Amino acid sequence: MQALNAAEVGGGAGGAADRESRELRIGRLQRQKVRVSRKRILESAIKVMELYARQRAVLELEYFNEVGTGLGPTLEFYTLLSHDLQRRTLRMWRHEDAEVVEYFRLLGRSLGKALQDSRLMDLPLNYTFYRYKADLGDAEFELVPGGKDQMVTSQNLGRWIEAVVDATVGSGIAAQVEAFQEGFNEVFLLASLDTFYEDEIETMLCGAGEHWTVQGLLEEIKFDHGYTASSPVVKALVEVLAELDPLDQRRFLRFVT
Predict the structure, then answer these.
(1) Taking each helix axis from N to C terminus, what angle separates 71-85 and 246-256, rounded to the nearest 10 degrees?
(2) How many separate domains does the chain show?
(3) Bigger pLDDT: 256 or 197?
(4) Which residue intervals define the domain HECT in the entry (predicted)?
């Protein structure tokens, strides 16, 4: 395998059989396996999305020095990335330097790829963000010309409030949103989502967030090795799972996958 900083891409070993298995075939999606560092998820994601966001192949992630592969590690990657992108230390949501803009480009690429590959991200965004259309004007960030030398008074309070709103959800975040849209459009056109309401987009990106029930679990679990839905240990297990809060349910899924 060829190392790519924090990411490693399969393709160097395995011979003809390996190459054949990665070919695009009718009725079967091409898959691209990528190995990443669990300790450097954000850096890995930047490299992976730069290389593969534009490709139609379905991404499958695995981790250095771990044997797990397939859907479980892939879903965990998107979850870990979601949490990294919400870290306050990144200063994404109240900052405007060039590095932050590139994080928004990564966010766009990642959300687009997650939608394309039918993956979920644990990253609920404000509905205003879905509706926002980037439209750059002036790059200067004073609320009004010469604003740093002015005091807020009863006479200009209304103007100040309008300027703060524009800086917070308008022209002040245009560069970030433009980078997000450019990153998303590398995967497929963001305009393709125009027919969906904001809550529908959130469901596609983050899932419905339904709480588990005993009956629902019994309907979804495939039983084997002599166990059935009426087995006492199975009943005990699903009763405990249904009592867990959403956070512990996610932790359980992470453990079993």
Answers:
(1) 140
(2) 1
(3) 197
(4) 60-257
